[in-house]
């Protein structure tokens, strides 16, 4: 059974606009997609109620906040068992450097995106907060040189005007 929601072309346009700028006013959004402001408000509310829109976030520049060094940490834990997953994820998320955590398949069990003040701080994070833990078997670190964000996420096969 699929959890997907049936979306109209107007719904897709609303999602595209909101993903590009979530601060757009309802009036501007309605005009951009060609519907009345009240209709737009109802459609956005429906997208929230159905769980298509799960929130809004402010994107920040990590370097401007004093964390210019970003990295991906591929982490292997042993044993890789259910009782270990949530406590380990909670530990990772409690670290102020951690931006996101993913549970993976393959040779690595977790991927953590981190932003640190320096290489020394990254080393401290890996040695004191990760490899010092009994369940961590390996940490593989890749530095981020540059980052590009993808476009809006829309259902497969959907098209909207650019």
Explain the overall architecture.
This protein is an alpha+beta fold and 162 residues long. It has two domains: 9-49, Arc Repressor Mutant, subunit A, CATH 1.10.10.10; 63-143, 2-Layer Sandwich (Alpha-Beta Plaits), CATH 3.30.70.920. Helices cover 35% and strands 19% of the residues. The protein has five helices and four strands. The protein has a four-stranded antiparallel sheet with strand order 2-3-1-4. The model has no long low-confidence stretch (mean pLDDT 94).
Topology:
Elements: H1 9-20, H2 26-33, H3 37-49, E1 69-77, H4 82-93, E2 98-103, E3 110-116, H5 119-130, E4 136-143
Antiparallel strand pairs: 1-3, 1-4, 2-3
Helix pairs in contact: 1-2, 2-3
Offer a quick outline of the entry.
With 162 residues, the chain is an alpha+beta fold. It is built from 5 helices and 4 strands.
Could you state the order of secondary-structure elements as H and E? Answer: HHHEHEEHE
The count of strands amounts to 4
Tally of DSSP helical segments: 5
Strand order of the largest sheet: 2-3-1-4
Cα distance spanning the termini: 32 Å
Q: How does CATH name the architecture of the largest domain? A: 2-Layer Sandwich
Helix content: 25-40%
How many domains?
2
